[in-house]
UniProtKB/TrEMBL annotation:
Pfam family, one: PseudoU_synth_1
Name by which UniProt lists this protein: tRNA pseudouridine synthase
Keyword Magnesium: no
EC number: 5.4.99.12
PANTHER family from the UniProt entry: PSEUDOURIDYLATE SYNTHASE, TRNA PSEUDOURIDINE SYNTHASE-LIKE 1
Segments crossing the lipid bilayer: none
Lineage, highest ranks first: Bacteria, Bacillati, Actinomycetota, Actinomycetes, Kitasatosporales
Keywords (A to Z) from UniProt: Isomerase, tRNA processing
Organism from which the protein derives: Streptomyces thermogriseus
Catalytic activity: uridine(38/39/40) in tRNA = pseudouridine(38/39/40) in tRNA
Occurrences of domain Pseudouridine synthase I TruA alpha/beta (ranges): 17-117
Family stated for the protein in its record: Belongs to the tRNA pseudouridine synthase TruA family.
Length: 150
């Protein structure tokens, strides 16, 4: 995705959160796996009645099972689509998105905004570390690891 907004398009900032328990991460994946990006892009396409998928850019992608709150993304929408739908877009997305994804705010982004590169900080919280130790009974070239909690 280009950092520049194409003529006739408007960059829209999305503030969102999600419970990542049932997702295979943020980014779309082949094979129909459920992702946060896929859910939001499908919802946008549906509520704007578009045949085009408007691709999201996010401040920081998350892995499978990871939750997010205060996540920021952007999407470049045709100006006509924004004019036609902006007043009800947030409410329509809320009605279309599953319960484990919420878009809290939508607004035109300031000039030069890019969700990925404009982020001032990111904070990640992880559960207590899982130690990894070598299993002596496995050969090299196979998994070679097992996990245990301390």
């Amino acid at each position: 995705m280009s950092d520049e907004v194409q003529p006739g398009y408007l960059r829209i900032r999305l503030d969102l959160s999600y419970d990542g328990t049932d997702f295979h991460g943020w980014a779309k994946q082949a094979g129909g796996r459920r992702t946060v990006q896929g859910e939001i892009e499908d919802a946008l396409r549906t509520v704007t009645r578009s045949t085009e998928t408007y691709e999201l850019t996010v401040a920081g992608r998350t892995d499978a099972g990871v939750h997010a709150r205060g996540q920021v993304a952007h999407v470049d929408l045709p100006e006509q689509v924004w004019r036609e739908h902006h007043e009800k877009l947030l409410k329509r997305l809320a009605g279309r998105l599953p319960r484990d994804v919420r878009v809290w705010a939508l607004r035109p982004a300031p000039s030069g905004f890019n969700a990925r590169f404009s982020a001032l900080w990111r904070r990640y919280a992880y559960p207590p570390a899982v130690s990894i130790r070598c299993c002596a009974t496995m050969c090299c070239g196979t998994t070679g690891r097992s996990t245990s909690t301390p």
